[in-house]
Amino acid sequence: METPLIEFRKVVKGFNSHTVLDGIDLSIYENQICTISGKSGGGKSVLLKHIIGLIQPDSGEILLEGKPVRNMSKKEWDDYRSKIGYMFQGNALFDSMNVFDNVALPLVQTTNLSRKVIRQKVMNRIEEMALTEAVNKYPSELSGGMQKRVALARTLVTDPKIVLFDEPTTGQDPIRKNVILSMIAHARKRFGFTAVLVSHEVPDVYFISDRIVILWEGRIAFQGAYEEMTKLRGPVVDEFLRSLEGFQDELTGLMSKEMFRSRYSAELSVGKKKSRVSAILFSIDFDSLEKELGHEASLYTLKALAEYTNRYFGTIGGFSARHSRGEILTILPRAELEEAQQLLSAYSEGLQENVLKRIRDVTRRYVGIGCFAISVNAGLTEANVTEEFDEIIQEARKKQQTVATVRCEGGGQSG
Q1: How many other CB atoms are there within 10 angstroms of residue 26's CB atom?
Q2: How do residues 363-379 score in pLDDT, each as one tens digit?
Q3: How many H-runs (helices) and E-runs (strands) does the chain carry?
Q4: CATH number of the domain where residue 190 is located
Q5: At 101, phi and psi to the nearest 5?
Q6: What is the pTM assigned to this prediction?
Q7: Rg value, the chain, Cα
Q8: Band of the pLDDT at 350, cuts 50, 70, 90?
Q9: Which of 224, 230, 316, 393 is geometrically suited to a Cys-Cys bond with 257, CB 3.0 to 4.6 A?
Q10: Does residue 41 belong to any structural domain of this protein?
Q11: Which of 218, 242, 266 corresponds to the end of one domain?
Q12: Which domain holds residue 297?
């Protein structure tokens, strides 16, 4: 079994007479994104501070790559601390410093590198975060999104092995929240660090997470993948989900996976005559789209696709949820396969004419990108009450083909 990068064993922490962490066991694995969710004031930030050593447990132990922290020498501990980056909730940029100096600060304060080496490292991160034009600007002159990129560039300038994010999307609108989450996911892939996020942006944050931890009443109620959570429900997880007001995919307006499964079970419940339904899996190549259009335009594309899908199929009793970052699963409980195919054909025509062309035109006008293509794939299949969602999705993926696309070729455009 893989040794966790960070492991908590029976960790207890209290303040005065209040126990915040009550004997928690937690595993965080290398090169993954681990998201910690839970109620406000439930100990999420306290847990994060244990990882960086700002707080010590009252009892229990914390292990790093299998070695108890209490057994580490000062040199070993200092070496570990030097490999941790921390992105603060409010960015914590210094208003009196320009972008270059803000990003350079950790290297200036914690290393003996020459000015030349520091400049090279700082400019590399600034270029990677698309901040070159802002290098001499001050935080007050930047948009909220650009400030987040500066904060991330500063966090990554020391090449950390672990990066801690404390509520990185607080106060942002749905598009901006997902832009920040996409930025974190791409940075993690590019630089190979382990990310630990404290976030209440559920379920949006779950789409970039490899592992989810639910901290509830001082204990770990669940830890594992998002799919596992939607399948293996328990009283505490249910209570956590009920505590989330209007729990749905905020970006797209679609159902959460939990709501979707509940609706699906109700439609195909035992005793109903109808035991088979039609299912359509829609997808866009989200990673490629982000490379071409950037985070914001890609998320706008996904949002428009979801809204159109929800509106079109919702009028005939269909319901949809986002399965992954670029996939939407739609169930048509009252449509046979042949009727569903006809509906899909009509949907595809409207999608191309009313949605994709509009997205392309808006993107070309405001983002300034020349030639690019937007394609939507769809796979239609039948599903029944005995099938797991994974089986339905796999079968639909096998049958996927492009149903709508817009592109430009050379100097012209075609749809």
Answers
A1: 22
A2: 776 666 667 788 999 99
A3: 14, 16
A4: 3.40.50.300
A5: -70, -35
A6: 0.82
A7: 24
A8: very high
A9: 230
A10: yes
A11: 242
A12: 257-414
